[in-house]
Amino acid sequence: MIRSNSNRLTGFIFCVALAFSASPVIAQHAPLAKGDPREAVNLSPKETAEFLAGMRTYLETIQGIVAAMAENKSARVPAIAKKSGAKLLNGVSLFTGLKLPLGFTSMSFDTHDKFDKLADKAAKGASRSIILADLRDIMGNCISCHAMYRFAP
User: Fold this and answer.
1) Of 32, 54, 100, 133, which has the highest C-beta tally within 10 A?
2) Taking residues 111-120, what's their average pLDDT?
């Protein structure tokens, strides 16, 4: 049976939630950096690089959407937005997910979902105002996440 990205995402969320509730010691958190109140996220250098690449994909997607809207080419928005949707999570290991703070994981899933919803709305001809409002909400997630979390050195 072929499962949709939405079903995979739901399954992944369930597994992560179950693991966090069953074993709270799996996620390891680094101490706060001196003067930095953000929660540290401990990942291997390879995992950190993968997450940073994903964040760059977010930025490229946002820039692409803004460029498409500025050029009155809203038909390009759905394909651009999908680049940062749930499919971006396909390569993330469950073990990596277990290392993440639950709030970080939750915000990540919400951000990917917001990109997919923006893509769907744009494909259905959503107005410029709706697309920009969705983009505003996505960027709000990015700003909140960067204010709350940091990758440990």
Assistant:
1) 100
2) 98
